[in-house]
Amino acid sequence: MLNYSTSEENYIKAIFHLQNGQNTVSTNALAEKLNTKPASVTDMMKKLKGKKLLHYEPYQGFRLSNEGKKVALDIIRRHRLWEYFLAEKLKFKWDEVHAVAEDLEHVSSKKLIDKLDEYLGYPKFDPHGDPIPDSLGKMENSQQISLADLAPNKLGEVCRVINQSEEMLELLKHKKINIGTKLEVKRKFSFDRSIEIKLRQQPPFSISEQLAKNIFVTL
Amino acid sequence: MLNYSTSEENYIKAIFHLQNGQNTVSTNALAEKLNTKPASVTDMMKKLKGKKLLHYEPYQGFRLSNEGKKVALDIIRRHRLWEYFLAEKLKFKWDEVHAVAEDLEHVSSKKLIDKLDEYLGYPKFDPHGDPIPDSLGKMENSQQISLADLAPNKLGEVCRVINQSEEMLELLKHKKINIGTKLEVKRKFSFDRSIEIKLRQQPPFSISEQLAKNIFVTL
DNA sequence: ATTATTTTTTAGATTTGCCTAAAATTTTAT
DNA sequence: ATAAAATTTTAGGCAAATCTAAAAAATAAT
To answer: What percent of chain A has pLDDT over 90?
Structure first.
């Protein structure tokens, strides 16, 4: 595995996360995710295409190649191992680990990461419940549960939508719920079994039990 | 304390080490230490002068300002804490820690470093015997003398190795000399200034003056 | 005290990663 | 189907950190 710059690694990781589910990622989506401008994204896409880390034709969006996915999994492995270390050993609170791990993840000594993994006892999930890839890039499928079964105050990431009728997709679109959307269950109302959920940077809102049953999340 | 780039930090640290003893550092010496060219050094010196981290007049050499020294001690603190962590917790061999710590030291979250320090139990010395500055920049000075200055028939315990080049560490490894090794000076030969020393349960053997000068012992 | 040598600085390029503004292309709406 | 809007790319620039080659200054040698 070659060495990549911090910037390249951030792009690779962001594409990996965005392409989860749908198979191509747009320039604007990536620019927003990375707090950069679309023109910068285009520049980097040309560069990463040259390194064969992704497939890209102008105006057609991009997706990681197999090699690109391997690199992404390696970065994610580093990130999540450091998050585990910070929370478990250094007693960081779970909402403080991410920012620090963003820096530590770019220290790419394979020996360091493998020894850290061993020291931590080969953990399978990081403090947010995300699975940690092993040194070959394999990771456990974190458990998928219906949003209707997620307990209050628990966080989940939408990974699957069972019913894919027009009507359902229309509703999901309106509520801005997509594959990959991270949400938190706030309350459950026994009167009509509706569930109040909260998405990032939005006020909480309610959804019906019927809808919740069709949405699956990973912890 | 402001944030500095990896490159700036490497320059600051190198100047700190070079100016030990004499009070100004030359362009060429710094270029050689950093494996770069004199022209690059001059560029950076202008920049660091602008940030008030050092004193510099063209052609006159440079030395760190008080602020520069504070920054240097902070970088050294990070480096040595990570070295301690790598050796103590991850079981790296003492000659493997330096290279990895070179990367980790540039992750500059104060909270990370202070928590790491606490987790490690506030160690006073790193695996090479070098003192670790505390969060205020203070560090212990143990009574150290060069093995070259140790009188015959005197006992000492290796506490520090100044030169940490690959070549030096290779030689130490071969001679089985480590931090903590107890030894006795048997004889000194004026012809080539070589020194005969004896380690526990081993026959005496000779080392060069050059090597002895780089090894420090406590009495 | 000049000259020669070494050291240091300047001038001008290069690479990486980012930007703005304008052009090209695709998508959406009428 | 064409116009309007949104998206994406190109063109040209900028800052950081590096380099080479040439000029300037300091040091050493005769």
So the answer is: 65
- Note the maximum CA span of chain B: 57
Reading the block at residue A81, the tokens are 């191992």
pLDDT in tens, A127-140: 766 789 999 999 98
Two tokens at A163?
Answer: 């019913």
The pTM assigned to this predicted structure is: 0.78
Candidates A88, A92, A111: best to mutate against B (most CBs of B within 10 A) is A111
Number of H helices, E strands in chain B: 8, 8
Structure tokens that stand for B59 in this block: 């052609």
| Beta carbons of B197 and B165 less than 8 angstroms apart | no
CA dist B82 and B85 (Å) reads 5
**Res. B52: pLDDT tops 90:** yes
Nearest CB to B107; choose among A90, A103, A112: A103
The H or E element that residue B217 is part of is strand B215-218
Query: What is the predicted pLDDT for the residue at A94?
Result: 66
* Single-letter residue type at B138: K
A49 in Cβ contact with A56 (< 8 Å):
yes
Which residues are CB-neighbours of A77 under 8 A, at least 6 positions away? A113, A132, A133, A134, A135, A137
pLDDT digits (tens, 9 = 90+) for A71-109: 999 999 999 999 999 999 999 986 789 999 999 999 989
Q: How far is B199 from chain A (nearest CA, A)?
A: 32
